[in-house]
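Give me structure tokens for this 118-residue protein.
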Amino acid sequence: QVQLVESGGGLVQAGGSLRLSCVVHGTWLRTIGIHWHRQAPGKQRELVASIDRDDFTYYIDSVKGRFTISRDNTHNTVYLQMNSLKPEDTAVYYCNVPGGYVGPSDYWGSGTQVTVSS
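Here you go.
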């Protein structure tokens, strides 16, 4: 069974940086893609960034140039480096293995809180 464990969230001032980690258990990271989503209070969960098996990356417009997604297959870990953070980046961040990589099911971590103060 696939399990995802996020870490690295916290409280940071606007303009600061955080690096989120997502450790993948139960499958080989090199065989799957990973998405990072976030959900702010009162808002829908949104896809922030993704990386596929061929290291093709995607970012939503609001984080382009500030966030970088990367993978370390040796340690089965995906990172989300977040720079120049803004108060609107405040949310719970989740990593996700979309359905189709490991059978039909989606897999989600429990999330890590990121709070950016102005």
